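Re: that backbone. Tokens:
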């Protein structure tokens, strides 16, 4: 069986077998590796999220025949500026740890920012409920969404300055420290090693 669709701006025809999902087609036939399988096709984790005709959807629950003639965008298909804004925002705010969920999150966030130029933190939290992350506790992901939002409309990829939680700790933003510990390490905190690559599914 064959299915023809547009993948990251290019029309492709992919051969698939009975029982395969869109995720299987993307990974095994089209060799798109940013889409992850984190829940054995149950649709719970969101690691395989892609944009189908502009809507963020989990690809593991979609049948190949359903994407005939449609447009699919993965992290690889985002333009360079969008990749930079999203990945650098995640890295700056400390929202990349193991990196497994990050490509799916990037796609979910892009779809949300395209449709909601401004939003509350609660709306952002609701938007990513379909993407599981066992590392970050989600607050830093929301921080990253706020940072990306500030740059999204202008498409300015200059993500600089300290993270939003640089001087804060605790639940939400918690309390500002009243004193600095007497013992200090040399230098300052650094960003995640190869964090951008991890966010884009390259590592």
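Recovered sequence:
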């Amino acid at each position: 069986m064959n299915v023809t669709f547009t993948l990251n701006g290019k029309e492709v025809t992919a051969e698939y077998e009975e029982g395969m999902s869109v995720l299987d087609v993307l990974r095994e036939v089209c060799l798109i590796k940013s889409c992850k399988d984190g829940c054995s096709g149950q649709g719970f984790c969101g690691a395989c999220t892609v944009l189908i005709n502009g809507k963020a959807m989990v690809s593991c629950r979609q049948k190949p025949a359903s994407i005939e003639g449609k447009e699919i965008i993965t992290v690889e298909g985002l333009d360079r500026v969008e990749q930079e804004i999203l990945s650098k925002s995640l890295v700056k705010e400390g929202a990349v740890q193991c990196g497994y969920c990050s490509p799916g999150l990037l796609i979910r966030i892009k779809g949300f920012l395209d449709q909601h130029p401004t939003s509350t933190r609660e709306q952002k939290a609701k938007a990513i409920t379909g993407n599981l992350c066992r590392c970050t506790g989600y607050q830093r992901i929301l921080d990253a969404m706020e940072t990306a939002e500030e740059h999204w409309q202008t498409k300015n990829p200059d993500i600089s300055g300290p993270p939003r939680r640089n001087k804060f700790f605790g639940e939400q933003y918690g309390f500002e420290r009243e004193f600095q510990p007497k013992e200090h390490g040399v230098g300052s905190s650094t960003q995640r090693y190869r964090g951008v690559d991890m966010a884009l599914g390259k590592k």
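Residues 80-172+194-199 form a domain with the DNA polymerase; domain 1 fold (CATH 1.10.150.120). The chain has two domains: 2-77, 80-172+194-199.
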